[in-house]
Amino acid sequence: MKKQNEKIFTILALIVLGVLVYLAENNLDAYKLRILNLGAIYATLGVSLNLIYGFTGQFSLGHAGFMAIGAYVTALLVLPPYYKEMIFILEPLVWPFTVMHTPFIVALFLSGLFAAIAALLIGLPVLRLKGDYLGIATLGFAEIIRIIANNIPQVTNGALGIKGIPEFTNLWWTIGVAVFTIYIIKGLISSSYGRALMAIRENEIAAEVIGVNLTYHKVMSFTISAFFAGVAGGLFACLLTTIDPKAFMFVMTFNILIVVVLGGLGSITGTVLAAFLFNYSLEYLRPIEAGFNIGPIIIPAIPGLRMVTFSALLLIVILYKQKGLLGGVEFSWKGLFRFIHKIFSNEKSSEGSSK
Amino acid sequence: MELVMELLNVDNITMKFGGLTAVSNFKLKVVPGELIGLIGPNGAGKTTVFNIITGIYTPTINQIYFQSQNITGIKPDKIAKAGIARTFQNIRLLENLTVIDNVMVGFHLHLQSNLVSAILRLPGYAREEESIYHKSMELLEKVELEKYKLEKAGSLPYGQQRKLEIVRALATGPKLLLLDEPAAGMNPQETKELMSFIQKIQNDFDLTIFLIEHDMKVVMGICRRILVMDYGVTIAEGNPLEIQNNPEVIKAYLGVDANDA
Asked: Taking CA A27 as the corner, what is the angle to CA A21 and CA A31, rounded to the nearest 5 degrees?
């Protein structure tokens, strides 16, 4: 298959995706749209975590922190000044935030930028650590961000959180950001820089002696990953319309981690698929919390049962499919056509044999 | 001889790990185009010398100069960029990457394009990537690995993995190549091929080679100068004939009963 053709197919697929988004926006109810929006935001988060964990091999648990930074930045920037004055009842909002008011897209970009700056500052010292130690340090960072958010009411309105954020987020934004994230991260990992990142994952010492600058590449990967987590945080704030520090507890990072592991470390296609599957099944499993009967056995309503079920499902996947749902297979037009061709020729040969 | 500027000058270095002196007063001057061997019993400190030269360890005492530039305490990736490449005793390939990617990573340190143009695949980067691909294929053809280019490096047979590691080192464009036991685990036929391969790449790439080897046939066959280490101390230096007849070496390396053999 020629490169030119692949480009045409990609553009066609994007147009089809656009039509689907248009149809969804106009026909689906708010509940279904919410699930799709969350799916797309998780796809962005998952792909960005996959960059640092799946491709660079650095176990980072700081995503909730970067999301929180993005969410607060967006919330403070898109809310009109008079409204901000009204809701900050614990302490009045400090100066630059009182007058700042930007369009949604600028707010999203700045969300990413602030998250990236935080990642740069934290990454330089912390990325010297390896494995679990790095995980714990980044987890600590995310907790610090959350606790700071709780304790500077002049900026974050403390534990009360920020309410009444305009609901700018729709499928156009969430899918658009997800597509953009995939485009950038796919471009990065299939470039020479991406090979260097994967070399670090495979063998740090080998990577270093063939000239890969460990610090530069790790921090670069971490910063880009955080940028998209920040943008996703902004989308998240404008989807829920209300944020408070509790929304960015460790569970948030853990959810993203589930998506990445479920989809397969180092597989973008798998991550996207898992992101939607995760959000859909969380909703689909909701009825089991209401209590049900299995024959004579009566199961009472247990809140949280769907999380237990989900954890069990996750265990099964991890036990029997360590490489994730797709087993590390990445989508490509070439692969798709080969697959279609295989099915087609199989049908032909089976038809032939039946005669 | 004095007019020739040395490529590498290891100036009397000592490496201590806590109370243990792994290497003491090691000195070596390497002139461009040499093929030097380093031998010695297990635990003599040979690999430590390699780790010091490639910047994985910083020597406790004294300095190392490469092309008259002090490289002591510089990070391994900068040393690779300066022109020293190496292989490892226990092969360190990027096992889950393809064979071709393993070689292409070696060219990364000379990449001119910046991150943005690489992500967006701007024409300048696309040209560079294309040329890296072709250069990598040429290198793979030299060791007849081109047919495995899309296989995972970890799935190659042992001998091929050794070759691939050497090719990856060559991709960084070194002036000095350090080979840590290249013949380990090879049968006599493979070893023979390896010897001619080492001599071939030395000519083709205008290299200076410094190798550690246990296989005496290899060392005596291709090295014109040999260093012998024992317990971190250099006990002898000379041409193969001198080394073979050095009583000190026979005692340390081949055992006391070597005369009977």
From this structure: 90
Across the strands, what pairs with B26? Answer: B13
> What was the ipTM of the complex prediction?
0.90
Helix spans in B8-122 (H): 46-53, 76-82, 99-106, 115-119
- Tell me the chain A residues in contact with residue B168 when contact means C-beta distances shorter than 8 Å: 210
Query: Which positions 216-235 of A are in contact with B (Cβ < 8 Å)?
Result: 220
Least CB–CB distance from A206: residue in B92, B120, B121:
B92
Is residue B64 classed as helix, strand or coil in its secondary structure? strand
Cβ–Cβ below 8 Å for B108 and A203: no
The distance of B85 to chain A (nearest Cα, Å) reads 7
For residue B169, give how far its alpha carbon lies from the nearest alpha carbon of chain A (Å).
7
For A254-311, how does the pLDDT look when each residue is reduced to its tens digit (9 = 90+)? 889 989 988 888 899 999 999 999 999 888 888 877 777 777 887 777 777 877 887 8
**Chain A interface includes B106 (CB < 8 A):** yes
Residue A199 contacts B where some CB pair is shorter than 8 Å? yes
CB within 8 Å: A196 and B105: yes
pLDDT by position in tens, chain B (length 261): 445 578 999 988 999 998 899 999 999 999 999 999 999 888 889 999 999 999 999 999 999 999 989 999 899 999 999 999 999 999 999 999 999 999 999 999 999 999 999 999 999 999 999 999 999 999 999 888 999 999 999 999 988 899 999 999 999 999 999 999 998 888 888 888 889 999 999 999 999 999 999 888 888 889 999 999 988 899 989 998 888 888 888 887 666 654 554
| B54 to chain A: closest CA residue | A209
pTM here? 0.90
Question: Chain B within 8 Å of A202 (Cβ-Cβ)?
Answer: yes
What stretch of H or E contains A95? Answer: helix A95-99
Nearest residue in B to A201, CA atom: B94
User: Which CB contacts under 8 angstroms, 24+ apart, belong to A145-148?
Assistant: A145/A64, A145/A65, A145/A68, A145/A69, A145/A118, A145/A248, A146/A64, A146/A65, A146/A68, A146/A245, A146/A248, A146/A249, A147/A245
Taking alpha carbons only, the member of A225, A271, A229 closest to residue A65 is A229
